[in-house]
Write a structure and sequence with these properties.
Layout lengths: L1 H31 L7 H6 L16 E4 L7 H5 L17 E5 L2 E11 L2 E9 L2 H8 L1
Antiparallel strand pairs: 1-2, 2-3, 3-4
Length: 134
């Protein structure tokens, strides 16, 4: 039984030494890190920061959604000119603005130079968009 106590004491000493060594490393790392004053120029030129210019010319699809509904294939095949499909939105409700299928805003239809447009009435924050992805 004395050997078990000696083994446990030795193991406890080893763990204590390992934990102390890790604490020393963590403390050294904490003191080694320093932060420069944040300036807009520093943020743009910071090494390792993403270069957004690379993605600015990538095309995305923007669509406006008036509403949605589900119908059976039988009813879909019966549609013809003049058919009316009831949607899940009320008249006057804002449209959804989707970028590559992701909701980014709500808006209302406007006419500009005899063409339809959309006025953004509520833009979804990036934090909210990330929450919806999860």
């Amino acid at each position: 039984m004395a050997d078990d106590d000696v083994d446990q004491d030795a193991m406890a000493d080893d763990w204590a030494a390992a934990m102390a060594e890790q604490a020393d490393v963590d403390e050294a790392m904490a003191h080694a890190v320093s932060f420069d004053e944040l300036k807009s120029e520093t943020l743009k030129q910071a090494p390792g920061s993403p270069d957004l210019d690379v993605i600015l010319d990538i095309p995305v699809s923007i669509s406006m959604e008036v509403g949605r509904t589900s119908i059976t294939i039988r009813n879909l095949l019966q549609l013809n000119q003049g058919s009316v499909i009831e949607l899940d939105r009320l008249a006057g409700e804002p449209l959804d603005v989707l970028v590559n299928g992701t909701l980014i805003a709500h808006g209302e239809v406007v006419v500009v130079n005899e063409k339809f447009g959309i006025r953004m009435t509520d833009v979804i924050s990036p934090a909210e968009r990330i929450k919806k992805l999860r």
